[in-house]
Design goal:
Layout: H1 8-11, H2 19-25, H3 28-40, H4 49-62, E1 65-71, E2 83-85, H5 102-106, E3 107-108, E4 128-132, E5 139-143, E6 146-157, H6 166-186, E7 195-209, H7 210-214, H8 217-222, H9 247-262, E8 267-272, E9 278-283, E10 286-287, H10 288-308, E11 311-314, E12 328-336, H11 353-368, H12 370-376, E13 398-399, H13 401-414, E14 425-426, E15 436-437, E16 449-451, E17 456-458, H14 468-489, H15 495-510, H16 522-531, H17 549-557, H18 563-617, H19 624-656, H20 660-688, H21 699-704
Parallel strand pairs: 1-6, 13-16
Antiparallel strand pairs: 1-2, 3-4, 4-6, 5-6, 7-9, 7-10, 7-11, 7-12, 8-9, 12-17, 14-15, 16-17
Helix pairs in contact: 6-14, 9-10, 11-14, 11-15, 18-19, 18-20, 19-20
């Protein structure tokens, strides 16, 4: 009988150079100094680096490591690594020496010219630096390359510009910490010393059989299906959501949890999602920087674990047309180092003035910078799901629920709040089922930015994306709102009156961003337009928000991005979109020419031959059905060829455009519609063709046969 049990406390963090390991292995003065640097976010002390590096190396080698790697996050949505062995110059007797210095721990030097830089680096300017992030612990990864010590690092150019996702995130955390502490001090809090953005991401993904995946070159080339007719059953019955986990999927989840727990990743929740073959994993809340690193580990470990089990993990936002795509809900809150959650209203939010101010300032931040939030969720695949009846609309709004909406209504209409609604008691009507206190408000799954009791859930993030960019934006726009409020309130003669007036004025001015209704409805689109809320139907339309003058000024004043860094990211976003669409378009044309059209020619030939055979054998036979099938197939085949020629033309025009912004918009407006036009007759042909002639596994084969 198989034993599936695991000792989680024993395995959790076993491959992490965590606090327990540091306390045990570092000299006490070094440990205390490093702990002080981490806890207080002080500047790294180079004098302790050699001792830390020595202890880290010994621990890694004792666990089988031969190499170390500075692990960083370039502007590609995935991570990068270069492995160096611990081997140093052999001694005079030819004996190998294993060394790792403080300098090697603190600084690495990968080639910076081959990563996206948006013009920050030229090809001939190759020098870039990785630098140790001591706030995210080093860890061991064990795979086919052996055992490697991974050291989380930031990645910057020779001139100090951020070429990565981590550096701006750490800067934004510094900014919100500084400004949030000003707010706390105004309310008399002298005990909190640090305010930390806490994040808990929920990762959605698909699992399919690897052998079927390898026969779908559209998946291999692009991560999503470019062709595919819907099977007779999709997700209509809602029977997959939270359903029993299939054995093969369960085995994957079991191994995935083990690998993640060993890496110190607090994987918490697992379940089947709405679409067939779709699943979800959620992490426990952590500091934003660590949560971002761990989410990258989650995605990488998912891919590796799936491959070991002859599966493939699909992280694309819309791998299958016609069923729900995948997102990544980013749960965000602000917590002090002594345990105060600034986004928790408490039992009587109408009396919690500090919370009401924080709430009003967050609404201000989201309302004034909705364009940046929308842009922060932009990856090409997200255009395929946002705004559909499966994901948040592309219009940024905030759901607060009945309790807080009532508080706002009282403040805005009368200037006073006399009470707040409670959740009441849940009565099931069954004697053996316990009655319990309900939450004060329901949830709204159609809202892109929803308050969910003591945190905000930003639901627009794409499943394949790093969560760093959305959290950079969230931290920065809220830090700006806190700064502006603190600047005003610190000068007030009567703080109580000033803060009361500020809350009322802010809620009145930014109430338009609050929407508690159905975000999927057409009525909301019209209402949002009436309110003056932006609606970027494609992420391409939101990219210029990065260089809007007010946004540049905010990022620069708070020390998060420079103008040059923002301009570079704008260029990269356009370039990445155009390249993605170009790859998808050329993949479609390749498959249409080499696989689909030849298959359908073979099918029509077979059909024509069968008609002739029947006609010769029985001249009076009714062959109208066969003839109609041949006509339908030929008509769709002609439509497909015409669409193919038009797509080739539009793709070539796009490729010739040198301006990245113009190219991205041309792809959006001409190439993408051309891809849809090619897909339509191809998907109709799949429903007409003999299954044994169709060159790909079908949606049904991939989604239901696992």
């Amino acid at each position: 009988m198989e034993d599936y049990s695991m000792n989680v406390p024993e395995m959790f963090g076993k491959n992490v150079f965590n606090d327990d390991v540091m306390r045990e292995r570092l000299p006490k003065p070094v440990y205390r100094r490093l702990r002080q640097i981490i806890d207080n976010r002080e500047e790294m002390d180079p004098s302790i680096a050699d001792a830390v590096a020595h202890a880290m190396k010994d621990w890694a080698i004792e666990n089988g490591a031969t190499h170390y790697s500075h692990w960083f996050q370039p502007l590609t949505e995935v991570t990068a690594e270069k492995h160096d062995s611990f081997i140093s110059v052999p001694d005079e007797r030819g004996h190998v020496i294993m060394e790792f210095s403080g300098k090697e721990l603190i600084k690495g030097e990968p080639d910076a010219s081959s990563f996206p830089s948006g013009g920050l680096r030229s090809t001939f300017e190759a020098r870039g630096y990785t630098t140790w992030d001591c706030t995210s612990p080093a860890f061991l990864r064990k795979d086919s390359t052996g055992v490697t010590l991974y050291i989380p690092t930031a990645f910057c150019s020779y001139k100090g510009e951020a070429l990565d996702k981590k550096t701006p995130l750490l800067r934004s955390m510094q900014a919100i910490n500084e400004q949030a502490l000003r707010i706390l001090r105004l309310f008399g809090n002298t005990t909190s010393h640090r305010v930390i953005p806490m994040v808990g991401p929920e990762q959605e993904y698909f699992l399919i059989d690897r052998d079927k995946y390898l026969r779908r070159k559209d998946l291999v080339y692009t991560g999503r299906t470019l062709f595919g007719a819907m099977p007779p059953k999709g997700q209509e019955m809602d029977d997959h959501y939270f359903g029993a986990i299939r054995p093969r999927v369960g085995a994957f989840m079991n191994e995935l949890n083990q690998r993640l727990w060993e890496l110190g990743v607090p994987a918490k929740t697992q379940h089947n999602e709405v679409a067939p073959a779709q699943h979800e994993l959620a992490q426990v809340y952590e500091e934003a920087n660590l949560a971002a690193d761990h989410n990258q580990l989650v995605m990488e470990t998912m891919r590796r674990t799936a491959e070991k089990q002859n599966l493939v993990c699909l992280l694309a936002e819309k791998p299958f047309d016609g069923i729900n795509g995948s997102g990544k809900h980013n749960n965000w809150s602000l917590t002090t180092d002594d345990g105060i959650n600034m986004t928790d209203p408490g039992k009587t939010p109408h009396e919690n003035v500090q919370f009401l101010l924080v709430l009003a300032l967050i609404l201000k931040a989201v309302d004034e910078h909705a364009d940046l939030l929308r842009e922060s969720a932009f990856v090409p695949g997200n255009d395929l799901r946002l705004g559909a009846q499966e994901a948040p609309p592309a219009i940024v709004s905030v759901f607060l629920g009945d309790q807080l909406e009532d508080v706002i209504e009282q403040l805005c209409s009368t200037g006073e709040v006399t009470g707040s609604r409670s959740g009441g008691t849940m009565h099931t009507g069954v004697a053996t089922l316990a009655d319990f206190t309900k939450d004060a408000t329901d949830r709204n799954r159609t809202s892109p930015f929803a308050f969910t009791g003591n945190k905000f859930e930003f639901r627009m993030v794409g499943s394949s994306a790093s969560i760093s960019s959305p959290n950079v934006v969230l931290n920065t726009i809220v830090a700006e709102a806190f700064r502006d409020a603190a600047d005003e309130l610190e000068k007030a003669d009567d703080f109580q009156m000033a803060v009361h007036d500020m809350i009322k004025n802010l809620l009145s001015a930014h109430r338009r961003i609050v929407f508690n209704g159905n975000g999927y409805s057409d009525e909301w689109v019209k209402e949002a337009e009436r309110r003056g809320l932006p609606n970027f139907r494609s992420g391409v339309e939101s990219v210029d928000a990065l260089v809007r003058e007010e946004n540049v000024r905010m990022f620069e004043e708070l020390g998060v991005y420079t103008r040059a860094e923002l301009e570079s990211r704008r260029e990269i976003e356009y370039e990445n979109y155009a390249k993605t669409i170009n790859i998808e378009s050329r993949a479609m044309m390749n498959l249409a020419r080499k696989r689909l059209i030849p298959a359908m020619v073979k099918y029509t030939t077979r059909l024509a031959e069968s008609i002739n055979t029947v006609r010769e054998a029985c001249p009076d036979a009714d062959i109208s059905t066969q003839t109609d099938m041949l006509k339908d197939t030929s008509r769709n085949l002609a439509d497909m060829r015409a669409a193919l020629l038009e797509l080739a033309k539009q793709t070539d025009i796009a490729a010739a455009i040198t301006d990245e912004r113009q190219k991205a918009f041309y792809c959006l407006q001409h190439v993408v519609p051309g891809m849809h036009a090619l897909r339509e007759p191809a998907d109709r042909l799949e429903m007409l063709c003999d299954k044994d002639l169709w060159p790909f596994p079908s949606y049904g084969d991939m989604l239901f046969e696992l």
